C-alpha cells in the first residue's frame, strides 16, 4: 500500500512540474516587448480629463515601463505587473499587484482601475496618453 501511495505521489509531482513548465513557455512565446520609446519613467499629470494636484495625491503617481513589465507608485502604494503589447498603439497592464498600505489618496483607486483597463496608448510631445475602450483616461510626462 505504501509503495502504491509513493508511486502515485511521485507521478503526480512529475506531471505537475511538466505542466507548469509548459504553461510558462507558452506565456513567454506570446509576449512582445513594448516599444523602446515607452520604456522609461512616466509621471501622472491628468486623470480622467482633470489635472491632478497635491490634494489628490501626496506624491504624484508614476509608472516605470520596461520591455515586458512595469512598476511604480499610486502616490502611496507600490505597484507592479506585466505589460502585454499587441502591436502599434495597443498595450495592457496585466497581473497588477499593489501594496495595501492605508493612504489618504483621494484618487488612488481610480488611478489603479484605469491602469487595469488600459488598452491603448500614444506618445506626443514627450507625453504618454493611455486610453481604454471609452477613450482617453490618463496622461503622463517623462519622469
Rg over CA atoms: 20 Å
Kindly provide the name of the CATH class of the largest domain: Mainly Beta
Percent in strands: 35-45%
Structural class: alpha+beta
Can you give the mean pLDDT? 83
CATH architecture of the largest domain: Beta Barrel
- Extract low-pLDDT stretches: 15-30
- CATH topology of the largest domain, by name, is Lipocalin
Helices and strands, in order, run as HEEEEEEHEEE
InterPro entries: DUF306_Meta_HslJ, HslJ-like_sf, Hsp_HslJ-like
Keywords: Signal, Stress response
Pfam families: META
Protein name: Heat shock protein HslJ
Please describe what this structure looks like:
The structure is a single chain. The protein has 143 residues and is α+β, with helices and mostly antiparallel strands. It folds into 2 domains: 1-30; 36-142, Lipocalin, CATH 2.40.128. Helices cover 27% and strands 37% of the residues. The chain has helices spanning 2-30, 108-116, and strands at 41-47, 50-51, 62-65, 69-73, 78-85, 91-98, 120-124, 127-132, 135-142. Strands 1, 2, 3, 4, 5, 6, 7, 8 and 9 form a 9-stranded antiparallel beta sheet that branches. The longest helix has 29 residues, at 2-30. The protein starts with a helix and ends with a strand. The model is unreliable at 15-30 (pLDDT under 50). Pfam families: META (PF03724).
Provide a brief overview of the structure:
The chain is of the alpha+beta class. The protein has two helices and nine strands; from the N terminus they run αββββββαβββ. Strands 1, 2, 3, 4, 5, 6, 7, 8 and 9 form a nine-stranded antiparallel β-sheet that branches.
Amino acid at each position: 500500500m505504501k509503495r502504491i501511495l509513493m508511486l502515485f505521489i511521485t507521478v503526480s509531482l512529475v506531471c505537475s512540474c511538466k505542466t507548469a513548465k509548459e504553461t510558462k513557455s507558452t506565456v513567454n512565446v506570446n509576449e512582445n516587448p513594448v516599444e523602446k520609446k515607452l520604456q522609461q519613467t512616466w509621471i501622472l499629470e491628468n486623470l480622467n480629463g482633470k489635472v491632478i494636484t497635491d490634494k489628490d495625491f501626496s506624491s504624484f503617481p508614476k509608472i516605470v515601463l520596461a520591455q515586458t513589465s512595469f512598476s511604480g507608485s499610486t502616490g502611496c502604494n507600490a505597484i507592479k505587473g506585466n505589460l502585454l503589447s499587441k502591436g502599434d498603439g495597443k498595450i495592457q497592464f496585466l497581473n497588477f499587484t499593489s501594496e495595501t498600505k492605508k493612504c489618504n489618496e483621494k484618487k488612488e483607486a481610480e488611478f489603479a482601475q484605469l491602469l487595469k483597463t488600459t488598452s491603448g496608448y500614444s506618445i506626443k510631445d514627450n507625453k504618454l496618453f493611455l486610453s481604454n475602450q471609452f477613450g482617453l483616461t490618463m496622461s503622463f510626462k517623462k519622469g
